[in-house]
Write a structure and sequence with these properties.
It contains seven helices and no strands.
């Protein structure tokens, strides 16, 4: 019974994150930011790593200030890295966390570029490319479940690389 309550509680958190993401994608950044902020304070520093990673990843997109956006993207990366060593067996979505790394590093590269820190941007752009390459086929030689997602992230990596050429 306790496990069932915990699972539905975790589902409720992801549902709330998803609802705020829909607001964000619908153009209501302020309401999305408010909901993410409330949920972040509810999760706390010891909250589930997957939830914190996902929440911070999207919270970054609601920020107006590039420094604040960078801070949230760094929180997302820190939560993802903590999750890797935390309790991966408990997360059936561990592949989903790994699939976030290219996007996390891509966002950090874009943040650093906005802040006129091209050297840091290049480091994270390289890490984004490496993480995307690692996900390409999951080592199986066949397209993985995130191949569509990978394609979008790869295209974004290429666009940022093109933008940074000559810098």
């Amino acid at each position: 019974m306790v496990e069932q309550q915990e699972a539905s509680s975790e589902d409720a958190v992801m549902t709330r994150i998803g609802q705020a993401v829909m607001l964000l994608h619908g153009g209501d950044r302020e309401e999305a930011r408010n909901r993410f902020g409330l949920l972040w304070s509810e999760l706390g520093a010891d909250g589930d790593g997957l939830h914190r990673c996902t929440l911070a990843h999207y919270m970054a997109d609601t920020q107006d200030d590039p420094g604040d956006e960078l801070a949230w993207d760094l929180r997302a990366l820190t939560a993802a890295e903590g999750l890797s060593g935390e309790r991966p067996a408990e997360h059936q979505d561990s592949l989903a966390v790994q699939a976030l790394y290219p996007s996390l590093h891509l966002n950090l590269a874009a943040d650093y570029l906005k802040l006129q820190r091209p050297d840091a941007a290049r480091i994270h752009l390289r890490q984004a490319r490496d993480a995307a390459d690692a996900l390409e086929d999951g080592g199986s030689g066949a397209p993985g479940p995130y191949s569509g997602y990978d394609g979008g992230v790869r295209a974004a990596i290429e666009r940022l690389e093109e933008r940074m050429r000559g810098m």
